[in-house]
User: What shape does this take?
Amino acid sequence: MNFAIYRELLRIVPVRRLLLVGMIARFPHSAAGVLLTLHVVQTLERGYAEAGAVAAVMTIGIAVGAPWRGRRVDLAGLRRALIPSVIAEALIWSIAPHLPYEWLLLAALVGGIFTLPVFSVVRQSLGVLVSGESRRTAFTLDAVSTEVIFMGGPALGAVLATQVSTVLGLTVVGLSTAVAGLFLMWFNPPTRSSQPGAVAGSPSAADDDEAAVEAMVASAPARVFEASAELVPGARPARGVGARARVAHSFGWLTLPVGVVMVVAAGAGLVLAGTDVGIIAVLEDNNRAFELGWVFLAWCAASVVGGLVYGAMHRPVSPLVLLLLMSVLTIPMGFADSTFALALLSLAPGLLCAPVLSAASEKIAHLVEEDRRGEAMGWYGSALTSGVALGAPLAGLLIDSVGPWGGFVAVGGAAASLSLLCLAAQQVRRRRGRRVS
Assistant: This one.
């Protein structure tokens, strides 16, 4: 391990500034979940189920909007792509707190679609600002900074909601995010290696060959159809062929290895959201909900430590292996009988939270060419968000059926099974590849 690489990386001014902007931009939204839930329950005097519906609708909006926002960054450039998000963040979250519940659902959906794409922009820019082992460290620092934000953001949101006003809190979230978006536009970090400020080195020859083969295979249908039309004068593609060719070309970056990373993202979101709900359920069952902060502090602090260790490693670890370990280690949390035991049991899976997300982001940056990387990062964010949207209801269903321990078993078992299936499929694919060669 080489911990000095952190010091070397943070000496790069654009990298340091980008990580700082990413933290500032994420902080308001880290408090938004708590504020939105308490706004529905306290201010609108609705139930927790209806509060969950608002969160689910916003999650769907984020999942739908992330790929589109990422693609706009690829096509129009960062500054032009962020303009709709900056306007929407300031406008929607200034109006939404004053709306009745039914209209709040619509506002949450639109707000989710136009959410400032901080995650994809930061990861995409880091992919061209650094290269080699430094790229893994940069992604790890970003994941660690996110964990630090989520140590304080929800707590601040709860204070604003209970001591001041949920209306003011949500308005502050929107305006603060818009200001962060303006700062990001002013900073304008590079998202491609051809832009000023990008210092990422060229990949190795082996990487070039691998990327070329993957790109050729992925885009083969489109090339074949185009070639047939050119070589045979007057020939027309069969009905539906042109549409299939366009779709194949649009998603040419979505190779099997990239698909596996998307599965990892969904599995990680599943575990994290389910663990979040499970922690609350265990503490409420023991009448210790007021000690929630201690468990979250232990869980997030462990993730910070794990991320720093992973970022200093010389060799990457498969994100599937990391997800499998995190999933299995999450299950014992359901058998905690005290706040101390729950905090202690959260340390082991917590150590793997940031490494899972860092390893997955590194894979995306390695496998997808930079002219489509923004879109890929957007889909990666959607996969993570989809896992989050599924994890909370799945955990809640088992908690209501069998007790608080069921939530941890449900999400841990589901994500572990998903990891094992993908690992088995990879082994089968490798064996077939050896037989063919």
The domain at 1-192 is CATH 1.20.1250.20 (Growth Hormone; Chain: A;).
